[in-house]
Design a protein that fits this description.
By secondary structure, this protein is α/β, with parallel strands linked by helices. The protein has 2 domains: 3-214, Cobalamin-binding domain (Rossmann fold), CATH 3.40.50; 234-523, L-fucose Isomerase, Chain A, domain 3 (Alpha-Beta Barrel). It is built from 18 helices and 19 strands. The strands form 4 sheets. Strands 11-12-17-16-15-18 form a 6-stranded antiparallel barrel. A 5-stranded parallel beta sheet has the order 2-1-3-4-5, sandwiched between helices. The chain has a 4-stranded parallel beta sheet with strand order 7-6-9-10, with helices on both faces.
């Protein structure tokens, strides 16, 4: 560590406390663990005896617990950091770890400027904010070797983009996405390569990437339950797309709206928050209560929400239904997080979205118009609802897990059987009413997204193997064993986080639809 950095550390308050956005953040070798729950760095005398060890900056990326994001508000980041630090220290005694917490790219830049004597970086995404592409660009641009690790259902949004960027650029940065801490330690031990004479960052990457790939198990039994999908004629599908209409509330993405109309022939109508909120206030509360009673009666159980929250969801459903009726629309997408957190909406639309999707219409989260048009198109093609998700990878199980708080419980279409579901709160902020759907296992799924502006569609498939119940991130977590190369899928993750999953082997009809639309189809796995 250079003298300027030492002087700066001496002037700073204990680095275990949350500092302001523009103050230097580092971990002083003499400070106590404090609020982070991390052990202090090794004293200078001990460090002098460990010069043969790689010195690795252990970077924990996450916001303060009051921020609403994955994994959830009030999350015990300190406990998770302590768990990981202890595991790495115990399983990698040949490495000296230097912990630091960063909340944003600016803090990351400040830390890295003082890290000339650090041999490499182990970046652990503990939450879905704190350190992003700029941080990874700083590491990669400087040729610094690094491991990126995802705290599953917590830091995934940042991890996937950072890992893909590093792969695109060919930087000596290895991404690890696993539920097993042992695999994180396996990757970390590869930093010892750097102490060999003549070793380079590229040598580290080769070793760490080989270790990571060896942990991926071979494919299991991918035979699936029989599922005869009734597919519409493509010409009929195109006709129905031209007859459809999408409402988007709280977002006006002009370029994307134009592209959807040009490629699919489907008009998109922007609606402002006050219009929807006005209809919510006018909704018949007795009818809203009837909706709530129906959902409560259908649910296997209701966990967090009280009756008022579910009745409010019923009123939001009635408002959306009336708005769609007025415009002759069969799909609605809402900037739900921006509307709710910004005080524009008083209830989440999650239960109403589920009602639309179960009944053959479309309710789409976060005003995601690419996912919306994907759901509209496949609804017309296969008569089945889509499940928008933020996917998470667990390569130790060869699984991709689709996670979100809106999911259908009639996955085979309006006339098909219902699967069990729970009414729960929206996970990130622990408010409102949302859904955990326990979807059928042993079935083939097709996961897809259309990108009209690029005239591109991306697709992968897998067999449903588990409904996970983990109290981090979104409520529904459908685990699928990937058909094909999960490593390619992970390291080639592009085009945003969301994907839309449909039950059934739909690859061939999707390919036929893409050809008719003039859209290129790319298989991700």
């Amino acid at each position: 560590m250079n003298q300027n950095t030492i002087n700066t550390l001496r002037k700073s308050s204990c680095a275990c406390c949350a500092l302001s956005r523009r103050r230097f953040l580092a971990r002083c070798a003499a400070c106590a663990a404090g609020a982070t729950g991390l052990a202090s760095l090794a004293p200078a005398a001990a460090a002098s005896q460990q010069r043969d060890k790689p010195r690795i900056r252990l970077v924990f990326c996450h916001p303060t617990p009051d921020i609403i994001t994955w994994p959830n508000i009030g999350y015990d980041y300190d406990g998770e950091k302590t768990r990981v630090k202890q595991a790495l220290s115990e399983q990698c005694p040949q490495i000296e770890f230097l912990p630091v917490w960063i909340k944003n790219d600016e803090e990351a830049k400040q830390v890295m400027q003082g890290d000339a004597e650090v041999d490499g970086y182990f970046v652990y995404f503990v939450g879905c904010r704190g350190g992003g592409p700029e941080m990874i660009s700083l590491l990669g641009g400087a040729g610094r070797p690094a491991v990126l690790a995802d705290h599953l259902y917590a830091g995934t949004g940042n991890f996937l983009g950072a890992n893909a960027l590093a792969r695109d650029k060919g930087w000596p940065i290895v991404g690890v996405s696993t539920s097993r801490l042992e695999e994180l330690a396996d990757a970390a031990r590869c930093f010892t390569v750097l102490k060999k004479p003549g070793a380079t960052a590229a040598d580290f990457f080769t070793a760490a990437d080989a270790v990571r790939r060896k942990t991926i198990p071979p494919a299991g039994d991918l035979s699936c339950a029989a599922d005869a999908v009734q597919v519409a004629d493509v010409r009929d599908c195109l006709k129905r797309l031209r007859e459809s209409k999408i409402l988007v509330v709280g977002r006006n993405a002009k370029g994307l709206i134009t592209a959807i109309d040009e490629v699919f022939g489907t008009p998109v109508v922007p609606i402002d928050f006050p219009t929807l909120h006005g209809m919510y206030l006018k909704a018949d509360r007795d009818e809203a209560a009837e909706c709530a009673d129906r959902w409560i009666g259908q649910a296997e159980k209701v966990i967090e929400p009280n009756r008022k929250a579910i009745v409010d969801s019923g009123a939001m459903y009635l408002a959306m239904k009336e708005l769609m009726k007025q415009h002759g629309a069969d799909a609605i997408a809402i900037n739900c997080l921006g509307g709710f957190y910004g005080g524009h909406l008083q209830a989440y639309p999650c239960l109403g979205f589920c009602e639309f999707n179960n009944g053959g219409q479309v309710g789409a989260c976060e005003a995601d118009l690419m996912s919306t048009i994907t759901m509209v198109a496949l609804g017309h093609l296969a008569g089945r609802p889509g499940f928008i998700s933020d996917p998470v990878f667990d390569t130790s199980k060869r699984q991709i897990i689709y996670a979100h708080c809106v999911a259908p419980w009639k996955v085979f279409g309006p006339e098909g059987p219902s699967n069990p579901f729970h009414v729960r709160s929206h996970s990130e902020d622990r408010q409102g009413a949302a859904v955990r759907s326990l979807m059928p296992l042993g079935h083939m799924t097709t996961t897809l997204k259309f990108m009209p502006q690029a005239k591109l569609a991306i697709l992968h498939q897998g067999k449903t193997v588990a409904n996970l119940d983990i109290d981090r991130a979104c409520r529904t977590k459908l685990a699928v064993e990937v058909q094909g190369d999960i490593d390619r899928l992970l390291n080639g993750w592009r085009h945003g986080w969301h994907r839309v999953t449909f039950y059934g082997d739909l690859k061939e009809p999707v390919a036929e639809l893409c050809k008719a639309l003039g859209v290129e189809l790319v298989e991700e796995a």
